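Quick check before the chapter quiz. The format below is the same one you will see on the exam, so make sure you can read both the input and the output lines.
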Amino acid sequence: MIKKTVESAINEQIKREEFSSRLYLSMAIWCESNGFPGAATFLYRQSDEERMHQLKLVHYVNDRGGKAALMSLSAPEANFGTLKEVFEQVMEHERYITSSINDLYEVTLNEKDYTTGNFLQWYITEQIEEESTMSTILDKISLVGSDKSGMFHIDKELSAMSAAAPAVGAE
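Here is the expected output.
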């Protein structure tokens, strides 16, 4: 049986993962509307991935005898100036999620819930990968600056990255 403090903390993380999915969906819509179909494809996939992260937490809470809960969310940002701004916000958000996963892990340690702590190791590793990927994308965007042909190639590479990634849910 999951402890109420751990259940509550995971439910907060469920909310954050759901917001992440909506944020990346909003960013994908912006990209698609502004001539970046590759970035849109990449961010649609990220949105799906965040929803899978949310569902994984939902199932975990319910499987441990708790009750997952959905909470109200504020609308995500919908307007961005440049593709670089989009990915700067993605990076900032991923760092926030990393911090929140670490805080959740700390709750499990304080509650001596080592089973949940072990479960969260997957999320900790996932966040390392997410931050590394976003850092690489931002480095490439910075290299091309505002060069339109360079941005065209970045967009194509984002599409290729999305196509090369494993199917959502296959993790």
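If your answer matched, good. Residues 42 and 163 are 8 Å apart (CA to CA).
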